[in-house]
Amino acid sequence: MPLQRPFLLLVAAMFVAIGALSTPPAHAQQIDTTLFRAMKVRGIGPAGMSGRVTAIDAIHSNPDVIYVGTASGGLWKSTSGGVDWDPIFADQPTGSIGSISIFQANPDIIWVGAGEGNPRNSQSAGNGVYRSLDGGHSWQHMGLDNTRNIHRIIVDPRDANTVYVGAQGSAWGEHPERGVFKTSDGGETWEKNLYVDEKTGVGEMVMDPSNPNKLFVNMWEFRRWPWFFKSGGPGSGLFMTVDGG
């Protein structure tokens, strides 16, 4: 056939070219790979913003059960001490978690504050407080929608219906939904019992483990702009209550 000889010549030429490419030139320098043994591998990206872990809590009586909240990747649960993880918040309207608090006397009761408490330029906002009564299988929204960013939640170890919420508020503007909110009826109603001004939110909140009526709260004045961040001011300071707020 008239095309058979040109086709065979073309195939032969291709094999010759491939062989030439796979054979190192005679003048190539040999590299001593032992010179690289001291080098360490390092990560250079991509740096996914959702990778920030913002909150962790575990069941004290069974520490293999761990809950982890992320900046914009939702809430995760492990029952294997961290070997395997399952997303348990994917059906909710927010993926930013600021705080987790397990009621240790009945660890099926979990409180979660939405909106991470790191006021960086990539901060994600939330929409209030959530509660689970079945270990994270289902969630109920419990209010405080406009707090934007909740940095701490503390459940009274004696009463799952008494909860303190430390709201940081938005980093990008002034608004009154900041400070410490308390419920004594499981989130049906909330009382703002520590408030400074529209610029100041909660930077930290801890409870005395021997006296649940005693709490320390660090109030923090801050503000972020696209080109600048202001930290501190006359609203900042340390507060203490000895009567549950």
Describe this structure in words.
- This protein is mostly beta strands.
- The protein is 8% helix and 38% strand.
- A hairpin with a 7-residue loop joins β7 (129-132) and β8.
- It is built from one helix and 16 strands.
- It is globular and about 80 Å long.
Which H/E pattern describes the elements? HEEEEEEEEEEEEEEEE
Morphology: globular
Q: Helix fraction?
A: under 10%
The radius of gyration computed from the alpha-carbon positions, rounded to a whole number of angstroms, is 28 Å
Record field, number of beta strands: 16
Distance between the termini: 98 Å
Q: Record the strand order, biggest sheet.
A: 1-2-3-4
Return the structural class: mainly beta
Number of helices: 1
Let me know the largest β-sheet.
Answer: 4 strands, antiparallel
Mean pLDDT: 89
Fraction in beta strands: 35-45%
Specify the oligomeric state: single chain
Q: Spans of 5+ residues with little confidence (pLDDT < 50)? A: none
